[in-house]
Amino acid sequence: MHQEKIKEEKKKKEKKHQKSSSESDNEEKKQEKLKRALNAEETHLLQVKKIMQTDERKQPYNGVYETWEPTEEEMQAYRMKHQRPDEPMASFLGE
Fold first, then answer.
1. Is the pTM of this model over 0.85?
2. How many C-beta atoms surround the C-beta of residue 7 within 10 A?
């Protein structure tokens, strides 16, 4: 009877360990996706800046306009890169 309890406890510990490792893997994947989204946002901003510096007559028609449904990581990267000037908490955030 006591041995059965010990075996059950070991199984529970193993399951918890597996869950925690899978959770850390998910967090790592989310962080990697966020890094990729931040890099993509940075390149997009550089591209827009380059287009806006050219003469209006030489700019491509709808050169900055792109359509796609953004992912959650892209939305988070956008929010991180674009701070609103009228944000009341900006002074507290160090912005």
1. no
2. 10
